[in-house]
C-alpha cells in the first residue's frame, strides 16, 4: 500500500480536496486502484448536524454516512463509492479510544494523546485503506488522505509524523498545498507565505515531497525557482495550479508538469510514464467544456444561497448534465425568502430582482433543506413552475413542498402543510416517519442507499433511468408524503410513480400534462459523475432546452 498525505497551508479552502482528487484521477488513469480518506479535526462525530454555512453541504454515502463534501469530490473524480469510515473526525477517534478504555483494553495504563490517539489514527488509516471501493471489489493500491495543520489537527499531524517511518519512505509521500498571493498594490507574486508554511510543517516533523502552489494567475519560472531554493526541494517538485475555467482542467495541469514520472520514481509504482485513455477522456471533456456556446439557465431556489458550497453536489449534477447535452450551465441562485410577500414590503428591489431571475430561467430546481424559513418562497416558485409549464425538479424537501403546493392550489386544502412546519395542520400531507427519533438529531434520519420501485411503465423518470424496474439512490430525510392521502392527488393528475420496496413510502412524483414536473424524495445528485450524469437532473436540463422528447424518442441516447 502506498500512502499520499495532502496537507494545506496559509488559508483553508485552498483546494486540497480537488488537488487530491485530481492526483487520484491521474493515478487511476495509470491503471492503479485508488481510495481516499478525509480527516477533519472537529469534535463532531460526523457532518450530519452542521449548518451548510459551516463547512458546505453534507454529502451522503451509500452506507448512510454523513460526511464532508470533499468525499463527494473524491467519489466524482475517481468514480468510487466510499464509506463513512473514510471520513475520520477527532470525535470519532476520541470516541473509539474512550470506548476501548471503558472496555479495559489498555490494561490500566494512562490513556494519552501520544501514543493512544495517534496510534488509533494510524490503525484506522491502515484498516480503511484496504477496503475495496471500486466495482471489482479488489483491494486498493494507493490511499490518498487529507488533513490540515492548525492547532486542533496536531494529533493527526503527529500521527502521520510517526506513520511515515512505519510505512517506510518508498510507501509514503507528502504533498503540501500552499498559496502564492499576488497583491494588487505591487502585482508581484509573493513566496513568503509558502516558505513560512513549509517551515512550520517541517517543524512538526513532516517534509513535503511536492509543493503545490495555488495562485490566481500562472506562476512565473523565477517564482518556482525561488520556492525550490528556500523550501529545500528540486524545481520539478514545485507544481503550479492557477485558477482555471473548470476543475476538469486540474488533472491535466498536474499531468503536464510531470507528476506521473515523479510518482513512478518516488513511490516505485509499476506504471508507464504515459496516462491511459481515462485521462484522454478528461482532456476531451475539459476542452469541450471550454468550447460550449449554447447556454441553459436554471434557477436554484433555496435558503443557503450565500455560499455556493452549500449546494456543491447539486451544482455538479447540473453541470454534468449540461455538459452531456453540450450546453453551458448558467446557475442562478435565488434566496427563497426574497420571493415572499414580506420581502416585497421590506425591500421591493430585492423582491422584484428575485422574481425577474425566476421568470427568465429555463428551468427551476428546489433542492433539499430543513426548517420553515424560506418555505413560502419555495412554494411560490413551485406554483410558478406548475402553472407556467416551466421544467421543474424538486429534491427531498423540494418534492414534499411540491405536494404541499398541489394540495393547497389544486385540491383546495388551504391549510395543507408538513408537520415539520405545522404540527397541528388539519391536512398533514407530509408527516414524520414512524422511525423518526425526536431525541437525538445526529444519524437518526433515513440515510443511505435505498431501493425505489417504479409502479408504472408510463413514467418519464423510468425512461430516463433506462426503463429499469427499480433504481437505488441515496436518501437523507425525516419526513415523508402521507401515504393515506395519495389517492386524492392521483385523481387530480399528480402521480406517485415510484415508492419503496414495501409500497408505503412515496419516492417519485410526476405531474400529468406538463413538460417536466418531477419530484424525488432521494438525492440523485450524490451519485452523479462527470461522464455518467444523474437521470433526474439530465431530464431537467433536456426539458429546459426543449430536447427531452427527442431524447426519449431516440431511446435515451444523447445526440453526437
From TrEMBL:
Keyword Flavoprotein appears in the UniProt entry: no
Q: What keywords are assigned to this protein?
A: ATP-binding, Glutamine amidotransferase, Ligase, Nucleotide-binding, Pyrimidine biosynthesis
Under InterPro entries, the record lists: Class_I_gatase-like, CTP_synthase, CTP_synthase_N, GATASE, GATase1_CTP_Synthase, P-loop_NTPase
Q: What class of enzyme is it?
A: ligase
Question: Which superkingdom heads the taxonomic lineage of this protein's source?
Answer: Eukaryota
Q: In what pathway does it function?
A: Pyrimidine metabolism; CTP biosynthesis via de novo pathway; CTP from UDP: step 2/2
Organism of derivation: Sapayoa aenigma
Identify the coding gene.
Ctps2
Which residues, by range, are in coiled-coil regions? none
Q: Where are the transmembrane segments?
A: none
Boundaries of every Glutamine amidotransferase domain copy: 307-536
GO annotations under biological process? Answer: 'de novo' CTP biosynthetic process; pyrimidine nucleobase biosynthetic process
Q: What does this protein do?
A: Catalyzes the ATP-dependent amination of UTP to CTP with either L-glutamine or ammonia as the source of nitrogen. Constitutes the rate-limiting enzyme in the synthesis of cytosine nucleotides.
Q: Per its record, how is this protein called by name?
A: CTP synthase
Q: Where is the CTP synthase N-terminal domain?
A: 2-269
What Pfam families does the record tag this protein with? CTP_synth_N (PF06418), GATase (PF00117)
| Single GO MF descriptor | CTP synthase activity
E.C. no: 6.3.4.2
**A GO CC annotation given for this chain:** cytoophidium
Amino acid at each position: 500500500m502506498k500512502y499520499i498525505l495532502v496537507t494545506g497551508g496559509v488559508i483553508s479552502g485552498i483546494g486540497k480536496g480537488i488537488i487530491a482528487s485530481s492526483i487520484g484521477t491521474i493515478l487511476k488513469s495509470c491503471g492503479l486502484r485508488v481510495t481516499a480518506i478525509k480527516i477533519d479535526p472537529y469534535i463532531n462525530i460526523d457532518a450530519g448536524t452542521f449548518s451548510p454555512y459551516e463547512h458546505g453541504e453534507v454529502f451522503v454515502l451509500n452506507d448512510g454516512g454523513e460526511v464532508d463534501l470533499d468525499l463527494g469530490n473524491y467519489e466524482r473524480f475517481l468514480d468510487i463509492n466510499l464509506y463513512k469510515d473514510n471520513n475520520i473526525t477527532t470525535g470519532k477517534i476520541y470516541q473509539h479510544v474512550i470506548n476501548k478504555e471503558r472496555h479495559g483494553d489498555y490494561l490500566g495504563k494512562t490513556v494519552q494523546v501520544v501514543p493512544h490517539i495517534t496510534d488509533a489514527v494510524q490503525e484506522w488509516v491502515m484498516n480503511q485503506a484496504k477496503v475495496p471501493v471500486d466495482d471489482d471489489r479488489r483491494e486498493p493500491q494507493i490511499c490518498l488522505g487529507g488533513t490540515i495543520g492548525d492547532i486542533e489537527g496536531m494529533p493527526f499531524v503527529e500521527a502521520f509524523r510517526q506513520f511515515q517511518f512505519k510505512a517506510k519512505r518508498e510507501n509514503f509521500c507528502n504533498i503540501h498545498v500552499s498559496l502564492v498571493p499576488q497583491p494588487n498594490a505591487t502585482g508581484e507574486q509573493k513566496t513568503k507565505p509558502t516558505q513560512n508554511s513549509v517551515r512550520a510543517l517541517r517543524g512538526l516533523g513532516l517534509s513535503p515531497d511536492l509543493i503545490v502552489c495555488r495562485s490566481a494567475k500562472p506562476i512565473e519560472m523565477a517564482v518556482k525557482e525561488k520556492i525550490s531554493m528556500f523550501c529545500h526541494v528540486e524545481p520539478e517538485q514545485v507544481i503550479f495550479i492557477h485558477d482555471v475555467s473548470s476543475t476538469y482542467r486540474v488533472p491535466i495541469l498536474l499531468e503536464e508538469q510531470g507528476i506521473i514520472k515523479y510518482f513512478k520514481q518516488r513511490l516505485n509504482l509499476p506504471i508507464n510514464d504515459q496516462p491511459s485513455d481515462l485521462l484522454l477522456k478528461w482532456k476531451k471533456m475539459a476542452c469541450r467544456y471550454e468550447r460550449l456556446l449554447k447556454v441553459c439557465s436554471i434557477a436554484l431556489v433555496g435558503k443557503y444561497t450565500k455560499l455556493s458550497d452549500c449546494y456543491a453536489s447539486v451544482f455538479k449534477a447540473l453541470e454534468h448534465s449540461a455538459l452531456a447535452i453540450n450546453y453551458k450551465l448558467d446557475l442562478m441562485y435565488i434566496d427563497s425568502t426574497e420571493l415572499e410577500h414580506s420581502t416585497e414590503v421590506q425591500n421591493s428591489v430585492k423582491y422584484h430582482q428575485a422574481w425577474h431571475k425566476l421568470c427568465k430561467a429555463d428551468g427551476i430546481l428546489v433542492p433539499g433543506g430543513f426548517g420553515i424559513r424560506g418555505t413560502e418562497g419555495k412554494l411560490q416558485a413551485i406554483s410558478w413552475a406548475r402553472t407556467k409549464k416551466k421544467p421543474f425538479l424538486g429534491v427531498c424537501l423540494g418534492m414534499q413542498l411540491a405536494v404541499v403546493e398541489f394540495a393547497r392550489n389544486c385540491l383546495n386544502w388551504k391549510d395543507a402543510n408538513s408537520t415539520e412546519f405545522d404540527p397541528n395542520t388539519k391536512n398533514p400531507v407530509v408527516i414524520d416517519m414512524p422511525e423518526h427519533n425526536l431525541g437525538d438529531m445526529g444519524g437518526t434520519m433515513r440515510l443511505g442507499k435505498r431501493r425505489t420501485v417504479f409502479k408504472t411503465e408510463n413514467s418519464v423518470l423510468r425512461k430516463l433511468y433506462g426503463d429499469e424496474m427499480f433504481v437505488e439512490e441515496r436518501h437523507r430525510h425525516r419526513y415523508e408524503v402521507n401515504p393515506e392521502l395519495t389517492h386524492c392527488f392521483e385523481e387530480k393528475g399528480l402521480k406517485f410513480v415510484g415508492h419503496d420496496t414495501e409500497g408505503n413510502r412515496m419516492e417519485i412524483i410526476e405531474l400529468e400534462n406538463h413538460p417536466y414536473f418531477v419530484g424525488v424524495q432521494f438525492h440523485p445528485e450524490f451519485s452523479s459523475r462527470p461522464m455518467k450524469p444523474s437521470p433526474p437532473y439530465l431530464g431537467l436540463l433536456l426539458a429546459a432546452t426543449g430536447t427531452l422528447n427527442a431524447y426519449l424518442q431516440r431511446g435515451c441516447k444523447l445526440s453526437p
